Amino acid sequence: MRILIAEDDPKLLKSLVHIFELNNYAVDGVDNGVDAFDFAFSGEYDGLILDIMMPGMDGVTLLKKLRSIGITTPALFLTAKTEIYQKIEGLDAGADDYLPKPFSTGELLARVRAMLRRKDNFTPDLLTFEALSLNRSTYELVYQNKTQSLSCKEFQIMEMLMQNPTAILSAEQLITHIWGWNTNVDTSVIWVHISNIRKKIDLLGASVFIKFVRNAGYTLEVTK
After folding, report:
1. Are 111 and 136 in contact (CB under 8 A)?
2. Fewer C-beta within 10 Å: the chain N or C terminus?
3. pLDDT digits (tens, 9 = 90+) for 183-215
4. For 56-76, how does the pLDDT look when each residue is reduced to its tens digit (9 = 90+)?
5. Tally of domains within the chain
6. What's the pTM value of the predicted model, to 2 decimals?
7. Which residue from 198, 206, 151, 146 is spatially nearest to 178, judged by alpha carbons?
8. How many CB atoms lie within 10 A of CB 36?
9. What CATH number did the domain enclosing 38 receive?
10. pLDDT at residue 81 greater than cutoff 70
11. Is the confidence at residue 107, as pLDDT, over 50?
């Protein structure tokens, strides 16, 4: 998958390029809207990640121009909280999603994966542990044709646990993955989300449990 990132903050742009390259994307990064338009005009990208406020051309104007000439590449906006009206304008202009700053690496990657799946109409992307599945397209737990929807944070926790089914993940690891390094989120927040996930697994009747290992963290286990 090839991604174009347009962000005028040089440190953030460098970080974003690094994140996506680590996750096996081919990435081009630009720091202004004019260059972003020229790159995106090629049509060689599977997805666009656009800052709204950029020199030369803002992200909303950029996307409107691309859509007007038939460029349908999926686009996600990175927005500041003060740009509410621009979020709406951007979605109306043809954006597929937006993500407010500051954001976590995990949520950014999850949103981009979802955006790219919608583009190509992929078959459901499932993670499975025993007979319990996590649908990464719909954020749902699936067991014997029954489903339970997860919130964004619940999904990210469950995704990390199912990607590492034999590992014990500490609350700190989960917090860093979901909220990023610079956060004041307390470990009790993880406990609340996991409690909610456990209830949803119980409603499905699945023989899977999120086990707490004292002084270590959380892991998936098959119930007897």
Report:
1. no
2. C
3. 888 889 999 999 999 999 999 999 999 999 999
4. 999 989 998 888 887 888 999
5. 2
6. 0.54
7. 151
8. 29
9. 3.40.50.2300
10. no
11. yes
Domain match, 171 and 210 both: yes
Residue 180 sits in the same domain as residue 204 = yes
* CB-based contacts of 97, cutoff 8 Å, min separation 6: 76, 77, 111, 114, 115
Side-by-side strand order, sheet with 75-79: 26-30, 2-6, 47-51, 75-79, 97-100
Residue 172 tokens, joined: 């700190």
9 and 115 part of one domain:
yes
| DSSP state string for the chain | -EEEEE-S-HHHHHHHHHHHHHTT-EEEEESSHHHHHHHHHT---SEEEEESS-SSS-HHHHHHHHHHTT----EEEEE-TT-HHHHHHHHHHT-SEEEESS--HHHHHHHHHHHHHHHHTPPP-EEEETTEEEETTTTEEEETTEEEE--HHHHHHHHHHHHSTTSPBPHHHHHHHHH-SS----HHHHHHHHHHHHHHHHHHT-SEEEEEETTTEEEEEE--
67: which 2 tokens?
Answer: 């859509």
Q: Are residues 108 and 134 in the same domain?
A: no
Distances (CA, A) of 101 to 12, 80, 96, 179: 11, 5, 17, 11
Q: Which two tokens mark 18?
A: 């690094």
Find the domain containing 104 and state its range: 2-120
